[in-house]
Structure formats: structure tokens, C-alpha cells
Write a structure and sequence with these properties.
The strands form two sheets. The chain has a seven-stranded mixed β-sheet, sandwiched between helices. Strands 8-9-12-11-10 form a five-stranded antiparallel β-sheet, covered by helices on one side. It has eleven helices and twelve strands. The protein is α/β, with parallel strands linked by helices and 419 residues long. Helix 7 links the parallel strand 4 and strand 5. The longest helix has 31 residues. Bound molecules: pyridoxal-5'-phosphate.
Length: 419
């Protein structure tokens, strides 16, 4: 075997990892406990909906009478404690589902308000923050945003705003995206939703839940959100779903989303699952455990880099809202080097080098390491970052903890030039 194709075990790194794993014991126990809780939730939802082998069958063409697809949507609705769900392979991505929901809920002259500052990069052209002929803005939909304050909602400003304006939809993005803020815990989201409902009960509260599913025991519908959106090549796909996204929430809102995704008059009744039902079911089944592995990999990364003197966010012992781990490199070369290391440690395309480049929907050049079974999957171990100050790596995922740990070892060796 070629020496390069071996994982070198640097004694210093081994010692460091052992030390961190000892220190992380209680945190790992907590993560295990959440996984058990969420696994129970998933299993019971399978039982409630009598999931059976027939649900692995699929439809083609229009997709009428796709009982597997319909059962999967009931399972998702149960897990989220929502009235209804739209779980489709016709969604290209999480961003597509978010775009679909926004176009479904908003009409000309309606006001959309983000209360978590500027939304995720791919939504800029959807909303019209960046000019696009097909944006919400081009249809006369008005947009405004309120920045976070000290990593929490700016409650005073939000409430004042709602007293002055008729807001149709509020968008809350829990995970940080490519920003430098913290991701928002379910407790913080719960607090602001309860305050919003008091002053503006008719405003629809939409949560971008990407990367946050199964990280805690509660999901956003349980704490008052009206509609929740996420990707299936992240947490809830469990590494099994080959594409797709979900929207869950109030029945009337899900119907609007379905009519935007397909067409008015056919809505949720159509959409062939094209052989994907088994993978979606396996994905949701595995997701509590895959999220557990991703979380442990994130916590370990945080602990190791902190020990090595790097800035990290969140710290290993902070309460987590999502599976994303930041390492703040301050140096462009180090960000690139670490991403290279993660690519080199992947099961797929380990011999390719990630190169920073322009990406559709993103403003800065981005470097993306993802040697994944599913293209762009970020529930599989992946690491990326825009090439701008302070050169932050956004690392997330890992289908198993062991592969995550091995990858960190190899990436560290590469970063430190020990390999
Ligand atoms: C990943 C992500 C999305 C959607 O991304 P896709 O790559 O389009 O699936 C949206 N919002 C946030 C915060 C995300 O992390």
C-alpha cells in the first residue's frame, strides 16, 4: 500500500484526541440521550402510520396515488407535530424549498421581514436583495430585515416594527449560514415567537431549519412556528436521501406550497416519487443517529482546535443549535489547507483537491471540501468557507463518529505539514 494512502498516527495528535474524548464524556452522554429521545419519536411515527413494505413502491408520470410518498409526508408531520408536510424529491435543494415557500405565501405588496439579519446567500436573488428578474421583489413583494443583537433577537426593535407595519411573513434562520453570528437555540426562537404572537398573531412565522433537525428534543412547530423548511441532503436525509427537501406546518400553508411546487389545482396530489421512497424512509430512520455522529464530530473538532489555540465557534461545551462547527483561521492559507485535508480524508474523491471558486448564489469565492456519496451532501463530513476575513471554516456532518475522527486526524496532519 502506498504510504500516502495510510492514516498517519502522529503521537501528539493521538494524545490530544484521547485527552479531548475524556473531557467530552458528559457531553457525549447528553448527545446520546437526545438521540435516544429522537429515535423513539421516529419509530413511533412509523408505527402510527403503519409503515409497510408497500410504501417502498413508487409511482411514475403524474404520481397519482403514491401511497409511499403520502405515508412519508405523514411520518414527517408526526415527527414535527405539524398538521401537514410536503416531502418531495422534486425539490432541488433546501434553497428551492425555501424559495417555493416564500413565493407560495407572499403576494404583491405583502411585507416579508427577516428577524435574523440578512438571510442565507442563496436567498438573496430569491428575495431581490441582489437584483434578479424573477425575484420576489420583481413581483412587488416588499422586504425588510432586523439584525440580531448580541447573538439574540432584537426583541424591542421587532415588537416596535410589528406594531407599525403589517407583516405577512417573518423569516427566522436558525443556523448561521456563512455569517459570523451564533446559530439560534430553540429556546431563543421559542421566546421570540411567543412575543411576536402577542402583538401580531396573523403574521406567518417561517423557520429555515437547515442543519438544526434532531439536534434538540423539540422542533420549531412545537414552539409556535407556522411553517418549517429544510433540506434532505442535510440532517433529515440521514445520508440516505439522494436529494429533496421538506416543508412542514399548518395545513393551509402546506397546500399553498404544494400548489407553487406543482401547479394550482393539483398541488399535493401529484409528484411521482420515482423510486425514492425507501431511501427517504431509511433516511429519516437513520437521522437521529447520523445527527448524533455529526454532533460528536463537531464537538471533538471544537475541543481539539481550542486546545491547539485556535478560535472556534461554538466552544465544545456550549449548547448547540445545529451541527455546524466553525474554526476561525484568520489566515487564508490555513482555511484552504484544512479544507484540502478534509477532502483528502474523504471516502470519495480523496485524490481531488478542492479549489476556491465562484458559485451560483454566493457572493464571494467559496472553497468546498466534500468527498461525499451524494453530491453536495453536508450531512456527510464536509468543510467549506467563503474566502473572506476572518477565513472561517464551516465544518459539518459525518455519517459516523469514527470516520469523523479519522478525518480530523488526517486534516490536522495536513494543516500542520506533518504528513
Ligand atoms: C444549507 C442551508 C440552506 C439551503 O441550502 P441548500 O444547499 O440549497 O440545500 C438554507 N439555509 C441555511 C441556513 C442552510 O444552512
Amino acid at each position: 500500500m502506498n504510504q500516502e494512502n495510510k492514516i498517519k498516527t502522529n503521537p501528539n495528535i493521538n494524545k490530544l484526541i484521547n485527552k479531548c474524548e475524556l473531557k467530552l464524556k458528559d457531553i457525549y452522554d447528553e448527545i446520546d440521550e437526545i438521540c435516544e429521545f429522537n429515535s423513539k419519536k421516529v419509530l413511533e411515527s412509523f408505527w402510527n402510520n403503519h409503515i409497510s413494505e408497500v410504501h417502498f413502491n413508487s409511482t411514475t408520470g403524474y404520481g397519482y396515488g403514491d401511497i409511499g410518498r403520502d405515508a412519508i409526508e405523514k411520518v414527517f408531520a408526526d415527527i414535527f407535530k405539524a398538521e401537514s408536510a410536503l416531502v418531495r424529491n422534486q425539490f432541488i435543494s433546501g434553497s428551492h424549498a425555501l424559495s417555493t415557500a416564500l413565493f407560495a405565501l407572499l403576494r404583491p405588496n405583502d411585507l416579508l421581514l427577516s428577524i435574523t439579519g440578512t438571510p442565507y446567500d442563496t436567498l438573496h436573488e430569491v428575495i431581490g436583495i441582489k437584483e434578479n428578474k424573477s425575484s420576489l421583489k420583481s413581483y412587488g413583494i416588499i422586504y425588510d430585515e432586523i439584525e440580531l443583537k448580541e447573538n439574540d433577537f432584537n426583541e424591542r426593535k421587532i415588537i416596535e416594527y410589528l406594531k407599525k407595519h403589517q407583516v405577512k411573513v417573518i423569516e427566522i434562520q436558525r443556523s448561521k449560514g456563512y455569517s459570523t453570528r451564533k446559530s439560534l437555540t430553540i429556546e431563543k426562537v421559542e421566546n421570540i415567537i411567543s412575543k411576536i404572537k402577542k402583538v401580531s398573531p396573523k403574521t406567518i412565522i417561517m423557520v429555515d431549519n437547515c442543519y438544526c433537525e434532531m439536534v434538540n428534543k423539540k422542533e420549531p412547530i412545537e414552539i409556535g412556528a407556522d411553517i418549517v423548511v429544510g433540506s434532505l441532503i442535510k440532517n433529515l436525509g440521514g445520508g440516505m436521501a439522494p436529494n429533496g427537501a421538506y416543508i412542514v406546518g399548518k395545513k393551509e400553508l402546506i397546500e399553498l406550497c404544494a400548489e407553487r411546487l406543482t401547479l394550482p389545482g393539483e398541488g399535493i396530489e401529484v409528484g411521482p416519487s420515482l423510486g425514492i421512497n425507501r431511501d427517504f424512509l431509511k433516511g429519516i430512520f437513520f437521522s437521529p443517529s447520523v445527527v448524533k455522529s455529526a454532533l460528536k464530530t463537531a464537538v471533538l473538532t471544537s475541543c481539539i482546535f481550542e486546545e491547539l489555540g485556535y478560535d472556534v465557534e461554538p466552544r465544545y461545551n456550549e449548547k448547540r443549535a445545529d451541527i455546524v462547527q466553525n474554526i476561525i483561521f484568520h489566515k487564508k492559507e490555513n482555511l484552504i489547507k484544512y479544507c484540502e485535508g478534509i477532502q483528502m480524508s474523504s471516502p470519495i474523491d480523496a485524490n481531488s483537491l478542492p479549489i476556491p471558486c465562484d458559485m451560483p448564489g454566493y457572493d464571494d469565492q467559496v472553497i468546498m471540501a466534500a468527498g461525499t456519496f451524494i453530491q453536495g451532501s453536508s450531512i456527510e463530513l464536509s468543510c467549506d468557507g467563503p474566502l473572506r476575513e476572518p477565513f472561517i471554516a464551516y465544518q459539518q456532518g459525518s455519517l459516523t463518529y469514527e470516520y469523523g475522527k479519522l478525518a480530523i486526524m488526517k486534516a490536522l496532519n495536513h494543516l500542520m505539514d506533518w504528513d
